[in-house]
Design a protein that fits this description.
Layout (H helix, E strand, L loop, with lengths): L1 H19 L4 H20 L4 H17 L4 H12 L1 H5 L4 H24 L5 H15 L10 H10 L4 H16 L7 H26 L5 H4 L1 H42 L2 H24 L1
Helix pairs in contact: 1-2, 1-6, 1-7, 2-3, 2-4, 3-4, 4-6, 6-7, 8-9, 8-10, 9-12, 10-12
Length: about 290
C-alpha cells in the first residue's frame, strides 16, 4: 500500500512539475511546495516535521532549477524527500546506497519529465509511469519503522524507568505483522500506537523541564512534577502491555485457525492411502 501511494504521489509530482512554473509566482510556489511536502510525507510513511521541512527544501530546489537544470532539480527533490527515511537507516553503507538511489532516480525522473513535457499524451503517460517506478527504488533499502524509531530516539534521553517500556514498545512494533489485523482492529491499534508516541513525547518534555532543585522551584512544585512523571510512565507501561497482549491474542487466533484448516492435508493423506492400495493390488497381480 505504501509503495502504491508513493507511486501515485511521484506520478502527480512529475506531471505537475513542468507546468507549475507557468502558473505565476504565488500559485506556482504553492504547487511546488505541495509537491515537495506531499512527496516527503509519502516517502516517510507519515506526517512529521522533519519530512515537511526537507520536502519544502526539495520543493525550493525543484522550483529554482527545474527550468534550467532538470537533472539537478529532480535529484535534489527526491534526495530531500527521502531525507527523513534516510535518518532511520542504521547502517552507514545502506544509508549511502539509499541516498544514491534517491538522487539517481530523481535525476533520471527530472530529465525525462523535462525532456518529454511537450510530447503527446501516450509518451507523457509512459514517462510518468517510468519516473514513478524509479522513485520507488530507495524503498528496497530497509529502514526502521517510523514509530519504533521515534520511541527509541525518545528513550535515549530518558531514565531507565521510562526508557525500558519505550524500547520494549519499539521492539514490539518491529516484530508485529500488521497484515494479520482486520481494518477495525488495525485502526484501533494505530490509535493506541499514536497515543503511546504522544505519551513518550510528553515524558520527554517533562524530563527537559524537570526542576533542578527543591529550593529553586519549591518542594510542592517538585512533588507535583514527580507525580505527573510517575503517572505518565504508568500510562506508557500500560499502553505497551495492552499492545503486547493484543498482538499475542491475534497471533494465537491466527495460529489456531491455521491448525484447524487441514482439509488439504487430509485430502492428500486420503489420496496417498488410495495410491498405496492400488500399488499393493498391482504387486499382488504380478506375483
Amino acid at each position: 500500500m505504501h509503495r502504491f501511494t508513493l507511486f501515485l504521489a511521484t506520478a502527480a509530482a512529475f506531471v505537475a512539475a513542468p507546468f507549475a512554473s507557468r502558473l505565476g509566482p504565488v500559485l506556482g510556489a504553492l504547487v511546488f511546495v505541495s509537491i515537495g511536502v506531499g512527496l516527503a510525507w509519502t516517502a516517510s510513511a507519515g506526517v512529521n516535521a522533519v519530512a515537511a521541512a526537507s520536502g519544502a527544501l526539495g520543493a525550493f530546489a525543484l522550483g529554482t532549477w527545474y527550468a534550467s537544470l532538470p537533472v539537478v532539480a529532480g535529484a535534489a527533490l527526491l534526495a530531500f524527500c527521502y531525507f527523513e527515511r534516510s535518518l532511520r537507516i542504521k547502517e552507514t553503507p545502506a544509508r549511502v546506497i539509499h541516498v544514491i538511489l534517491a538522487s539517481g532516480a530523481g535525476a533520471i525522473a527530472g530529465y525525462l519529465a523535462w525532456r518529454y513535457a511537450g510530447s503527446d499524451l501516450g509518451v507523457r503517460a509512459t514517462v510518468v509511469i517510468v519516473t514513478a517506478i524509479l522513485a520507488g527504488l530507495p524503498l528496497f533499502v530497509e529502514a526502521d519503522d517510523v514509530v519504533a524509531h521515534t520511541l527509541d530516539t525518545l528513550a535515549d534521553d530518558l531514565p531507565k524507568s521510562a526508557a525500558k517500556p519505550l524500547r520494549a514498545g519499539a521492539e514490539l512494533r518491529r516484530s508485529v505483522d500488521a497484515a494479520l489485523l482486520d481494518r477495525r482492529t488495525a485502526r484501533e491499534m494505530n490509535e493506541t500506537w499514536n497515543n503511546l508516541v504522544r505519551l513518550a513525547q510528553a515524558r520527554s518534555r517533562l524530563e527537559n523541564r524537570q526542576p533542578k532543585s527543591e529550593k529553586k522551584r519549591g518542594k510542592k512544585h517538585t512533588q507535583n512534577h514527580r507525580a505527573v512523571i510517575a503517572r505518565v510512565e504508568e500510562r506508557i507501561a500500560d499502553h505497551v502491555r495492552i499492545l503486547t497482549q493484543a498482538y499475542t491474542a491475534v497471533d494465537a487466533a491466527h495460529a489456531a485457525e491455521a491448525s484447524m484448516n487441514d482439509a488439504a492435508a487430509r485430502s492428500v493423506e486420503t489420496t496417498g492411502e488410495s495410491l498405496d492400495e492400488v500399488s499393493r493390488a498391482l504387486v499382488d497381480d504380478v506375483l
